[in-house]
Every structure is written in C-alpha cells, then in structure tokens.
Design a protein that fits this description.
Elements lengths: L2 H4 L2 E9 L4 E11 L2 E12 L1 H14 L7 E6 L2 H8 L2 H7 L9 H11 L3 E6 L7 H14 L8 H7 L1
Amino acid sequence: MSEQQAHQLIIYTDGSSRGNPGPGGYGIVLLWGNQRKEISAGYRLTTNNRMELLGVIVALESLTKKNIAVTIYTDSQYIVNSVEKKWLDNWIRTDFKGGKKNKDLWLRYKAIAQHFKVRFHWVKGHADNPWNNRCDELATEAADGNNLLIDVEFENLKI
C-alpha cells in the first residue's frame, strides 16, 4: 500500500438479490490504513440495484469524519455511471421523469455524499479483487440470513 493510500478512506461495496426482486443484501468493507470495518444487512424483498446503492449510502452514513476524500470501489456500473457521468444530476433536475427508479435512495445518496469528496472506481465483479469478493460474500450471506429487514419504500411501491 502506498503512503497516499495509507491515509485515505477506501470503501468497497456490493449488493446482491436472490431474484430481482427477491431477498437481498449489501456488503461493505471500509479500509483506513491497517484498520478494517465490515458492515452488512439483508432485506426480505428488494432489487440488486437497490442493494448496490444502499451499500454505498450506508458506508457513507457510517462515517463520523466529514469533508474527507473517499474512494469507493463497486462492481455496479449503474452506480458509477449514474454519478460519474452526471446522470443523477439530470434525474434530480427532472424529478426522475421517465420512470427512473430508486428515487428515494438516490436522494438519500445525494444528501450524504455532499459531505465528502467521493470518487468511484468500477471493478469487475466475481473476479480477482479480494475486497470486492469479500463484499459479495457479506451481501449474499446477508440476503440468505434470518431476520431480514424491510425495504419499506420498495415494498410500498409494489402494493
């Protein structure tokens, strides 16, 4: 690990769902120097994209120090492209017209991300990145677990 990497926050996230929709979960690994923290949770009915996005949100919401540089690695092109290509800015400007999904989570992401200097990097999923693979394990274990949480916004849309 380079000197620069040792003094910045690195976050890996992944989301999973068993069926789309179906039971799902997210997994997070936060790395700061030699410190590591893992976070995961499972939901009884959700989608893969919601879990990918919720993983990023929960990771940022777990941080106590604001205005720091954060590099997030994800295998979700949906997230990377939505933020890095400024699709999200347009969705917000047009109030998510045209059936854009996950408005609740994107607005939650935007609210928390403004407190950090966030950069996204896409990594190939299910490949040779050990941290992405660990996030996948956490996400799938959470999706397969007991006492699954309720993705209230998603389930309310289904009614």
